[in-house]
Design a protein that fits this description.
By secondary structure, the protein is α+β, with helices and mostly antiparallel strands. Helices cover about 55% and strands about 10% of the residues. The protein is built from 6 helices and 9 strands. Belongs to the bacterial flagellin family.
C-alpha cells in the first residue's frame, strides 16, 4: 500500500459485525482533525480530505480493494502502520466513497462515545464515594472514621483517648481519696468532742465542792466516753478498710501513667493510742492527772486533723489539675478527629451536584451510540 498518513498514536479497530483488528490506545496528544489519505491509479490521484473533529482524528487508507480505519494524533513522527481489511465496517469495494466514509465516521463516533461513557462512569463512581464519606462524617461528627481516612491522625487520637480516659479515672481516684480523708477527719472530730467532754468532767471533779460519790458519778461518764473513743477508732472504715485503729497508708493514683500517685495516711486514734484509756477522776488527784492526759490527747488529735487537712487540699488540687489537663487534651484530640461542619457541608453540596450532573451526563452519553448506529441502517 502506498500513501501518506499524517496521524499517530493509533487506537485501531473495534469488534463489530465480524470485524476484528488490533487495538492500541492513543497518546496524550490532542488531535484536531479527521484525515482521509490514499493513492489510487489513473484518474484516482492523490487526494486528502480533512474534516475538523474535536479531540480525535480518523483516517482511512484505500489501496485498490483494501480499506482500513484508525484514530490518532497529528504528530507526524508517530505514524503507526495499520493492517486494513477488505470487508467489514467500511464496506465492499463496490460501495460508494460517501457510504464508506459515513460508516467509518460512524465507527469513529461510536469509539469516542464509548470512551466518554467510561470516563463518566469513573467520575460518577468517585463522586458517589466522596458523597458517602461526607454523609458519614456529618453523621458521626468525626473527620476520621477509619484508618484509611488518616492513619497517622488515628494513631495520635487513639493515644490521646487513652490519656483522656486515664485522666478521668485519676480524677475519680483523687475524689475517692478526698472522701477517705473526710471520713477519717469526721471520726477525729467525734473523738475530739469526746475528749473535750472528758476534760470538762475532769475539771469539774477537781473542785472541792464535789464529794467522792459525785466524782464517782462523773467518772462513770468518763468511762463511757473512753469506750466511745475506742469504738470510733475500730469501726471507722472506708470501703472495708479500718482507718483509725492503727497507722494506715493509701496510695492514690492521680495520673494516667504508672507512678503518678499521692500517699494518704491515717494514724491510730483509739483511747490506748491517745493515752486516755486508764483515765479516772474519782479523786481530786486523779482528776488533775486526767486533765494533763486529756490535753495531750486533744493536741495529738488536732495534729492528726491538720495532717488530714493538708492531704485533702493536695488531693483537691490534683483533681483541679486533672480536670484542666483532661479538658485541654480533649480539645487537642478534637482538632484531629472532629469534622469541620462548615467545610464538610460545603463538600457535601459539591459532591451532590457532581453526582447529579454526572448521572445526567452519563444518561446522555449512553444514548449517543444508539443515535450513531442509526446512521448504519
Amino acid at each position: 500500500m502506498t500513501g501518506s498518513m499524517r496521524v499517530g498514536s493509533i487506537a485501531e479497530g473495534v469488534r463489530m459485525t465480524g470485524v476484528n483488528t488490533p487495538v492500541r490506545e492513543p497518546t496524550a496528544e490532542v488531535p484536531t482533525q479527521i484525515e482521509w489519505t490514499g493513492h489510487g491509479e489513473g484518474d484516482d490521484r492523490d487526494r486528502e480530505t480533512r474534516v475538523p473533529w474535536g479531540r480525535a482524528a480518523l483516517y482511512k487508507v484505500r489501496s485498490r480493494d483494501r480499506y482500513g480505519i484508525g484514530l490518532g494524533s497529528e504528530r507526524g513522527q508517530d505514524r503507526w502502520p495499520m493492517t486494513p481489511w477488505k470487508e467489514g465496517l467500511l464496506g465492499e469495494n463496490s460501495d460508494s466513497e460517501s457510504q464508506r466514509m459515513s460508516r467509518a465516521f460512524t465507527m469513529f463516533m461510536y469509539l469516542n462515545a464509548y470512551r466518554a461513557t467510561d470516563r463518566l462512569q469513573r467520575k460518577l463512581k468517585s463522586s458517589s464515594q466522596e458523597l458517602g464519606k461526607a454523609y458519614v462524617r456529618l453523621a458521626s461528627g468525626y473527620r476520621i472514621n477509619g484508618a484509611s481516612d488518616d492513619a497517622a491522625g488515628l494513631a495520635v487520637s487513639t493515644r490521646m483517648t487513652a490519656q483522656i480516659r486515664g485522666l478521668n479515672q485519676s480524677a475519680r481516684n483523687a475524689n475517692d481519696g478526698i472522701s477517705l480523708v473526710q471520713v477519717a477527719e469526721g471520726a477525729l472530730v467525734e473523738t475530739e468532742a469526746a475528749l473535750q467532754r472528758m476534760r470538762e468532767l475532769a475539771v469539774q471533779a477537781v473542785s472541792g465542792t464535789y464529794t467522792d460519790s459525785d466524782r464517782s458519778d462523773l467518772n462513770d461518764e468518763v468511762s463511757a466516753l473512753i469506750s466511745e473513743i475506742t469504738r470510733i477508732s475500730t469501726q471507722t472504715t472506708f470501703n472495708g478498710a479500718v482507718l483509725m485503729s492503727s497507722t494506715m497508708t493509701f496510695d492514690i493514683q492521680v495520673g494516667a501513667d504508672v507512678g503518678q500517685k499521692i500517699t494518704v495516711s491515717t494514724a491510730a486514734a483509739g483511747a490506748s493510742a491517745l493515752g486516755v484509756n486508764t483515765t479516772s477522776i474519782t479523786s481530786v488527784g486523779l482528776a488533775s492527772v486526767a486533765i494533763t492526759k486529756i490535753d495531750a490527747a486533744i493536741a495529738r488529735v488536732s495534729d492528726m486533723r491538720a495532717v488530714l487537712g493538708v492531704q485533702q487540699n493536695r488531693l483537691e488540687a490534683a483533681v483541679h489539675n486533672l480536670s484542666s489537663l483532661c479538658a485541654h487534651t480533649e480539645v487537642a484530640r478534637g482538632r484531629i478527629m472532629d469534622v469541620d461542619m462548615a467545610q464538610e457541608t460545603a463538600n457535601l453540596t459539591k459532591q451532590s451536584i457532581l453526582q447529579q450532573t454526572g448521572a445526567a451526563m452519563l444518561a446522555q452519553a449512553n444514548q449517543q451510540p444508539q443515535l450513531l448506529l442509526g446512521l448504519l441502517r
